[in-house]
Amino acid sequence: MLIRMTKAKKAAPIVLLVALTLTGCAVTPSVPSEFTLVQYPAAGFGGIYEQTARAAHSIDMEIYELEDPIEERALIAAHQRGVSVRVLLNAAYEARTTNQPVAALLRAGGVEVRFGVSSTIFHIKTTTFDRTTSDISTANLTPQFYSTTRDAEIVDTYPVHVAAIEKTFENDWNGQNPASDEANAPGLVWSPDSEQTMVDRISSATQSVQFTSEELSDPYIYRALASDAARGVRCQVVMMDNPDWAKGFGQVTAAGCVVHVLPETAKGLYIHEKLILIDSGTARASVMVGSQNASYSSLAFNRELSIVLTNAQAPTVIAEVTRTFDDDFAHGSRWPK
In 81-218, which residue ranges form alpha helices assigned H by DSSP? Predict the structure, then answer.
C-alpha cells in the first residue's frame, strides 16, 4: 500500500502547556455506552453495506478513497429509494483525476458528489447515516486491501458527536476553510491543527502508552513517546518495517520504548490503523482512534477526524483494541533487528 503524504513543512514551535479543553478535544464526559468497535480485517466490510441498505433518510460520506463497487451500487440504490446521499471526495494533488471515475459513476446514478477544496487533503474516512450514527474509521473503501489491512472503526451514536460531524460535513460540503470550521465536541479530534492534541494524549499516560500508525515522521509525536518512556511509562509501538520511520524509531527506542515491526509483504498483515492506547488495564484507560497519521502534514494541514474514548464510556472497545494491539505486537519483530 502506498503512503500518500504532502510535502514536508517545518513545524512551528508548540506550547506544551495548552490544555486539552482549549483544543476542543477534552476527554468526553461519562455518557451511556453508544460506541461500537469494528476491527478490520476480521470483521469484513459487510457492516457498512448493511448500514447503507438500512438508511431511511440521509447518508453523508466524506472519504479519501472510494473504490468499492458494492458500496457504490448501494449508495445509488439508496438514492433511488429516496434517501438523500452526498459523497465528498478528496481533490488535492492528483486525487481529483483518481476519484473522477467514481464521481461520474455516482452522479450518473443520481448521487450528489462534490470534491473537497483542492488546497486541503481530505484524508478523513467518516460516514453518517440518518443523522443518528457516524462511522469514524481509519479505513478507506478500497477492496484490494480489505483482507490484509489492520484498520479500525468506531460506530458512534452519541448525539453530540453526530451533530458536530454533520455540521462539519455541511461546512466541508459548501467549500468552507477546513482550518477553522470544525464543530468541536468533547472527544472529537479534528485536523487541521491537531498536533498538540496528539502530543497531549501521549503525554497524559501515567502507566503505559501503546501506539500504532502507518506513519511516524512528526518529531513532536516521537519525542512525546520518548518522553513517556524516559519517565518510566511502559511504551510499546507496533508498525510496519519501513526505513522512513527509522529516525523516530531510533529516538523512542533510545529512551526505552519497545518497537515491534511487521514485514511488508504481499499477503501479510499491513498496519494502517492509527491508534493511541493510554494506561490500558486501568480504570483511567483511554483510546484515540481515527484517520490522523503521526505526520506533520496529517496533523497540521489535512482534513482528518479521530475520536477519544475512555474506559468509563466504552470498556468493551478499550478491551478489544487492547487485545488486538497485544496480538499485533506479539507477532512483530523487535526493532532494530
Answer: 95-108, 159-173, 195-203
